[in-house]
Amino acid sequence: MSEKKVCKSICRMCGSGCGIEVQIEDNKLVRISGDKDNHINRGRICIKGSSAVTWLDSPERLRKPLKRTENGFVEIPLEQAMDEIAGKIKELQEKYGKQAVAGWKGEGTGFDQNEALMRRFNNVIGSPNYFSNNTQCNNGRYVAFYLNYGCWPQADFRNTKLALFWGTNSPAAHSYWTQDLNEGREKGAKSIVIDVRYNEQARIADLFVPIKPGTDAVLGYCVINQMIERNLVNMEFVEKFTVGFDELKEYAKQFTKEFASRITGVEEAVIDQMVDMIEEAGDQVCSWPGTGLEHQRNGVSNSRITSLIDCLVGAVDQKGGMLLTENHKRNDLTLNDEFVRELEPIGRSKYPIIDYFKRESHTLMLMDTILTGKYEGRDYPFKGLIMTAADPMFTEANTSKTKKALSSLELFVVKDVMMTETAKLAHYIIPAASNFERDEIYFNGIEQSCYLAAKCIDSGLQTEYEFLKGLADRLGAGEYFPWKDEKELINYIMEPSGYDYDYLKEHPSGVRACPVRYKKHEERLARGEKPFPTPTGKIELCSTVLEKFGYKGIPTIDDLPDYVKEPDPEYPWPCSTGARKVYYFHGRYRNIPQIKKAHPHAEVEIHEEDADSLGLQEGDMVKVTSKQGSITLPVKIMQRGTFAKGAVQITHGFADANANLLTDDTDRCPISGFPALKCVNVRIEKA
Ligand SMILES: Nc1nc2c(c(=O)[nH]1)N[C@H]1C(S)=C(S)[C@@H](COP(=O)(O)OP(=O)(O)OC[C@H]3O[C@@H](n4cnc5c(=O)[nH]c(N)nc54)[C@H](O)[C@@H]3O)O[C@H]1N2
Ligand SMILES: Nc1nc2c(c(=O)[nH]1)N[C@H]1C(S)=C(S)[C@@H](COP(=O)(O)OP(=O)(O)OC[C@H]3O[C@@H](n4cnc5c(=O)[nH]c(N)nc54)[C@H](O)[C@@H]3O)O[C@H]1N2
Ligand code: SF4
Ligand SMILES: [Mo]
Question: Which PROSITE patterns match (predicted)?
């Protein structure tokens, strides 16, 4: 008799955290369907979620630890691999200093407990660094929001009157937002999509604004200028709860409709339409800046400017606006307060704002440090990298440099569930328990809820916690990893919330911290407290934190893309990379046959008139070349009205045409250090 059961959990095939029901037979995953009781996805799941069983059963699945030898990879026992890795860490730190080794956590295990664990590990081994995918993800917006509000707000799509989606495509990237927006639309919500492509988000929008890559800040400032001219600013809110309005107003003046239209390619009448819609929505407006804004030279300014539109109408912590949500209290695992960094972290001197808000090192600068042995001109040997849940060979800007740097390490350990291009460069590969094979907590901001992404089967594979605890034990730092397993760990994290592992397990569709409360800043003001958690206690249109570090306080547009200023005749086209497809997650899932069939290879998207001018037809092979490298791939013609003229787009993560062979790791936002992945100078030739 086979043993059958159903385990309710959270899908971790992407970051959306949909509730799932996992059918299990004899300790094997059989089928995955949506959990109707989970409010995030309300029973729906996408093709990635339903394909998890096939993915985890694929030939690339790692099950045995591997060690690189002269004759290629050989299997070795886990305990031996862990002993050897710990021995090498010790040796490298003794020889080169504590800064010579650090851990890197990628997108594969999310941001909650596994990020905190890796930070903790780095602290206890004496490294001043913590590396993650956030050098290219989220930190740009995080910093923008923290500069403005002092916290990370959530867009109330369910109750809004107007949602502005700037360079973000929720149907592909954050499916539950689409459901929230649809709920809002039933109550009359409208939406505007500002994007280089007529994406899935645009298909459900009331207004699509096609924009040239890298020019959003100009459009944003023009909208703000129009709002000021047309007296649409909620002056009562602005005077009571913000600082810096006069400076912002003065700076915005230069962004006339004529100027903005010329730079962005957006018609003046369309700008008027945008402002009309903002006027109609009153103070129920919410704007979401996505990676289209963040992966730019003006990344932080882009995201700040768009979110300031919400601040100027007073849509902050207000039903249908940008909510300052409350979630469960928890214990901090990082030990950041206990361990003072005496050594210099990589990136802090150049991007102090990231260090100030996130205490995070810079992965792109790490590659240069590995290759040169220097950081900011001073000796800085970096020799050992412990990487889990990341695949930088597909995701890091400038793949050629990344490969060179990772290949020159004395110790490179990769922990992953799959054999990846990155793992192929490692000295040791440690198979990871997938999220179905280990326990993890997951928080959702807008739901103000906590969930247990529960272990459903026992594979015997090593979890993230066991990996770091195993190394810490061997390095004499075991006292900092005292918990027996993930269950004990989760009990520790959740202690202040009053909920424990067992309670979360019994409530698989989520435990809400508290009901949503609006206008908390007004209550705080009435109590004589700071209304917002910024240094001035107000929303900082002009940031005192930026000024403290020598930047301008208001968001400024310091540098426009090259093709706008003065096109390089050798590389005249701006290429935006990495627009999400619902099927794939960065480099993942290309080994799932049903997914590969749906969208088999990379394409370069181009406006039909531009294709005509280059003599290109659908499917023609072209060579796309940047200063960093070139790739060859087929053309996808985009009809008039569905794409910005004068630009191209390539999604990343494909082995046959890896977009990051083109991207430039040195062309960065001066505040966040983000590479301009969404605006790379390229040339296009028929192959
Ligand atoms: N299926 C799937 N979902 C994912 C991911 C995935 O790989 N696959 N990745 C996850 C991660 S880590 C993240 S950070 C999020 C990202 O989430 P989003 O930021 O929503 O990512 P995209 O869906 O790629 O949307 C970016 C949009 O920006 C547009 N764009 C490009 N350049 C510009 C520009 O200069 N200006 C404007 N206005 N728009 C521009 C692109 O055309 C695209 O529509 O998605 C997450 N969700
Ligand atoms: N050109 C271009 N490049 C980009 C982007 C872009 O838009 N354009 N987007 C950037 C962004 S926003 C991000 S977030 C980064 C993401 O970059 P990465 O951090 O490299 O993320 P993934 O490619 O998702 O790699 C995650 C890895 O984790 C593994 N994994 C999955 N589950 C587990 C687990 O439970 N344990 C372990 N140990 N491993 C697991 C997967 O197999 C996969 O190999 O890419 C960035 N790169
Ligand atoms: S959107 Fe798809 S992959 Fe992401 S959590 Fe939901 S079901 Fe899983
Ligand atoms: Mo990301």
Answer: 4FE4S_MOW_BIS_MGD, MOLYBDOPTERIN_PROK_1
